Amino acid sequence: MQNREIPDYMFSEFYRDVLGDLYNAKNQTTDAIKIAQIELLSVYAYQMLVDAFGDVPYSEALSAEGDSPSLAPKYDDAKAIYSNLIERTKTAVSGLSGSGSGYTSSDDLIFSGSIPNWKKFGNSLLVKLGSRLFDQNPTVAKELIEGYYAKGIAENSDNANIKFEGAPPNTNPLWEDLVQSGRQDFIPADTFVDVINVLGDPRADKFFDPNSKVEDAYKGGPYGTSTPFNDNSHISQTLYKPDFRGVLMNYAEMSFILAEAARRGYNVGGTVTEHYENGIKSSMSEWGVTDTKASTYLAKADVAFATATGTDQEKIAKQFWIAMYNRGFEGWTVYRLFDAPELKVSGTLKLPVPKRYTYPQSEQTINGDNVKAANGGNDKQQTSIFWDIN
C-alpha cells in the first residue's frame, strides 16, 4: 500500500483539497448556516482521516493558512479528536437553525439548499460517530445513537449524495479513473463476487457488467493477485457514467447501524430485524432493484435474519458490507468494526486485511518526529484504530 502511495494521496487530498478549501471558505463568510454546513463537511473529512490513520494532525492542522504557521504540525490523539468532532457536530447542527441563509440550491451540490436535509445529515453524522464507539465507549455510543437517530436520514430521499456533471471538469472521479484514464484493469475481487453469487443477490447485475460473465456466472479476480482483465467479470457500466452519484451517507448505512444498536439493546424505534431489512431494501432500491426482487431475496433462508448463518452481529455485518459496494472505505470500516465478514489474506503476499493506513512517506520525511510519536510509535498496517478493540 505504501509503495502505491495510497496513504499519500488520501492524506494530501484531504488536507489540501478538502479541509484546506473548507477552511478558506469558512473564513470568507459570516453566514452562520454556511459556517455550520462547512463544519459538518470538515467533521466528516476528519473522521475519515482518523478512521484511516489513527492519530493525525488536528489542533495544529491547517495552521500554515493562519497567523502562526506550522509546517510540522503535531499528531493529536485519535480518541481526543473524536471527542472534539462530536462536540463540533452538535454545535454545527444547532448552527443550522441560526441566522443566515446557507448555500443556495445552485451552490449546494449535496442537498440543493435544503436546510432540513442538512440537519438530517448532521444528526446522522452524530449517529455514525457514535457507532464507531460501540465497543470502545458504549455509554457515549448509546447516548449519541439514541439521541439523534430519529432526526437523521430516514429514507433514500434524505441521502447525502454529491451531484456530479456529465462532462469535465466536474465529473465523478470514478469516471476519471475508469474512462478518462484509458485504463482497462479494474475488476471486482472474488472476495466480494463469491458472496454475491452464493446469495443469488439481485444486485449482481447492477454491481457487475452482465456482458462480462464467465461461463454464465460472475467471476471475481483473486484478491491481492495480478490477473488478466479479460479472464474475469467487470464492474457495472453504471459506474462508468460521469454523473454517477457520489455517496457521503445513506439510509442503508443508517439502517444497519440501527440494526446493530437494536441488537445491543438500544432504544432505536424498531427491532433488529426491521432495521436489517430496511438496510437491505433501501440498498436494493438505490441500485434499481424492484421491490418484488428485494422481497424474494429477503425471504431466502440464507438472507432472512431469523435463519441466515452466523451470529446476529455477523448477519448484520455481511449485509452491511454488501450494501457499501462502491463505498469501499465504509465497507472496510464495517469489517474492522464488526470483525466480519471473514475475508481472505491477499493472494500474492499472504497478508491479512490492513487495520489502518501507514503514514505517508512524505510525512515521514518532512514531519518525522511527530510521525514517530503518533499511535504510540506503532506505524504498522495491523495497528488498530482506537475504536477497533476486538
Key features?
mainly alpha; globular; 4 strands; 15 helices; 390 residues
Description of the molecule:
By secondary structure, this protein is mainly alpha-helical. It has a domain at 173-240. The protein has helices at 6-26, 32-53, 78-95, 115-132, 138-148, 173-180, 190-199, 204-207, 251-263, 272-286, 291-298, 312-323, 328-338, 361-366, 368-373, and strands at residues 56-57, 75-76, 160-162, 246-249. The chain starts with 5 loop residues before the first helix and ends in a 17-residue tail after the last helix.
Helix content: 40-55%
Distance between the amino and carboxyl termini: 24 Å
The main sheet comes to:
2 strands, antiparallel
Query: In total, how many beta strands?
Result: 4
Overall pLDDT: 94
Provide the fold topology.
Elements: H1 6-26, H2 32-53, E1 56-57, E2 75-76, H3 78-95, H4 115-132, H5 138-148, E3 160-162, H6 173-180, H7 190-199, H8 204-207, E4 246-249, H9 251-263, H10 272-286, H11 291-298, H12 312-323, H13 328-338, H14 361-366, H15 368-373
Antiparallel strand pairs: 1-2, 3-4
Helix pairs in contact: 1-2, 2-3, 2-4, 3-4, 4-5, 9-10, 9-12, 10-11, 10-12, 12-13
